[in-house]
Every structure is written in structure tokens, then in C-alpha cells.
Amino acid sequence: MLPINQLLLFAFTAFLMVLVPGPNMIYLITRSVTQGKKAGLISLSGVVCGFLFHITLVCFGLTAVLMAVPFAYMALKTAGSVYLLYLAWQAIKPGSKGLFETNKQLPPDKPLKLFSMGLFTNVLNPKVAVFYLSFFPQFIKPAYGPILAQSFLLGFIQISVSCTVNTMIVLSAAKVRHLFSANPTWMRMQQWFMASVFSGLALKMALDKGK
Predict the structure, then answer these.
(1) Is 135 exposed, middle or buried (0-12, 13-18, 19+ CB in 10 A)?
(2) Closest to 181 (Cα-Cα) out of 103, 110, 105, 108
(3) Under 8 Å between Cβ of 34 and 180
(4) How confident is the model at residue 104 (pLDDT cuts 50, 70, 90)?
(5) Which of 6-10, 118-122, 179-183 is the least confident region?
(6) Which of 34, 96, 119, 129 could cross-link to 46 by cystine, CB 3.0-4.6 Å?
(7) Dist CA 190 CA 149 (whole Å)
(8) Cα-flanking dihedrals φ and ψ of residue 104, to 5°?
(9) pLDDT band at 101 (very low <50, low <70, confident <90, very high)
């Protein structure tokens, strides 16, 4: 079993990492601001399942294979970049409610759509898999017991930390929802800001050469 001091250090590091803005955080904030707490929490459940997907791949060594095959890594990175650009376009495209519309006359997105978008925002981000693959070995040692058990333990600690922090972010963002709904100018600025963030993240992902 991993020593308690190692687990605490891992949890603290995971806490610092979740505070770094990325596609998951941006998506959760926008959903919470524009559709409220329930939509944000449903989206978060999709993000968490995305973490489970990556952790399972890492624990069983599949991510190591993925990182060793340039074409596979490039395909995942390209898919992630395209999906982020899709989110950016949904934010500002004319003639529709887009991703961030708060008009109360329009029906909110269904739970399945909220969940799936949260899931794919995470699954299609190869940096999550790379993070696990490079981060876990620093804490895992054969002397502490079965490698698979250690990997899953660290994974669930990371998910717990991420879920806790992101839940607080969702609840905080939902509280300021009325400020955007009451001010169309601020709402439009927020749309363009989020579209720019998603586009920037897509560009960064596409140009990233590191593994």
C-alpha cells in the first residue's frame, strides 16, 4: 500500500493541476453559467467518466501503446482539436442558440447531450492520458504492492480531487448565471471570449509536439 505521505503529496499535486484552466473547466463553467447548476453537474459527470476512461487505459498499459504509435496519437490529437473548434463555433454561429445561449424561451439541452459533451471534451484530450502516463510512475513503486492496484488508487484519488474542485466551480458559476441573463452585452462578450479560449486550446493542442 502506498504510504500516506505519498498519497497526500499526490492529492495536493492533483489539486494544483485541476486549478489550471483547460477544456474541462471552461466547458463546466459555461454550462453552469448558461444553464444552471443541474446542467453543470450533469456535464461534470461526463467529464468524470472521461477520467475513468483515461485511467483504465493507463492502468492496463494501453496508453503506453497509444503514445508509442505516432499515427494513433496524431489521430487522437486531431480529433480533440476539431472537437474544440466545434465548441468554439457553437458558441458564436449565427441563427441558433449556440453553446452558451441563455434565452429562457429556448429549451435547455437534454441531460444526454450535456453528459456526452462533457465526456468527449475529456476523452478527446490526449494531454489527460499523457499526464497520467508521466505522473503516475513518480508515485508507483513495486515495493508498495500490485502496480495495477496502485494505479487505480491514484486514479480514484485524482478523480475525487478533480470532482470536488469542479463541483465547487460549477456551484459558484451557477450563482452568477442571472448576471449574464440580465445583460445581453455581457452574454455576447462571454460567447466570444469562450469561443476564443476554445480556439486557442485547439490550436495549442494541434501544434503541441510533446508526448
Answers:
(1) middle
(2) 103
(3) yes
(4) very low
(5) 179-183
(6) 119
(7) 43
(8) -70, -15
(9) very low
